[in-house]
Amino acid sequence: MTKRNYLLLTPGPLSTSESVKRAMLQDWCTWDKDYNEGVVTVIRRKLLEIAGLDEKEYTTVLLQGSGTYGVEATLGATVRPEDKLLIVANGAYGKRMATIADYYHLNYVLVSLKETELVTPEIVVRALDEHPGITHFSVVHSETTTGLLNPIEGIAEVLRGRGITWIVDAMSSFGGIPIDIRGLGIDFLISSANKCIQGVPGFTFIIARREKLEACKGVARSLSLDIYAQWEEMERGHGKWRFTSPTHVVRAFFQALKELEEEGGIEARYIRYCRNHRALVEGMAAAGFRTLLSPEKQSPIITSFLYPDAAFSFTEFYDALKQRGFVIYPGKVSDADTFRIGTIGDVYPEDFQRLTKEIRDMREG
Q: Has this prediction a pTM greater than 0.85?
């Protein structure tokens, strides 16, 4: 057993279990049947299983790179020149979609909200009314810029029956927050290995409605980010990737999926993350820190806290916590001084009780 040098209290990469780390100790051949059929194909099937999806209707694509690679690949392969994309953003990751659209010269509309404002059904309705001809809609579910959790259930009712292709960045929510992909009518959901499944960084994955993915043939503007071609190769080659896959990372994810099932699935993990968040917020309140967001807007993934006073130094605070075995995140909000603490990963309520006790001691000392 290796000793952790600190707990990563971030939205990913995050603290992983010892067994996930150990899974990376063996080398794998990308052409080998044991790897392609015994690991990759099983991962693709398990992702559909934990999402409650039928493989006749939905499928999965694994792709090398970070979550942003998955978002870029999906936008670049689904939005044709004649299409019109609507992006509603309330943070850095929604705005990043617009940056991708600029690079790809997509026909798009960006509705940019305040970073503390939810993407509500009313906002989506108004945007659709003001911008006729929308064929694709993309939004971030869990916006880790602040910790907002956008109400995709209400948005689904707005989109229903309009024939709009719905793309959801569920990077830091899939696997940790229940999402009824089929019931909500989501066509493409994107996440990453190093988030709520609790694997390590190295690949992103897309859960897609089969008929929508099949319609992407020949649309991609990038060779390596062509999700249709990647999917076609994985289907034909029984899990084979077109280009060298991150084998150790993939095997770690295989182990992480097993541990998710052993924990009781997404519902059980969601309950733990909520308990982590509650322990954090209560402990921070006792130490004199207020949250940026009100409870009804807040996800159990990451929480933004306001600086307690004008003399507060985040750098000193960060360094002191790191010496005590905890690593947190700086703030990312434009008009408020904040820092962020993540509550996902192989971490538990007692970890946040220890963290907040250290913070109280630091403040009192």
A: yes
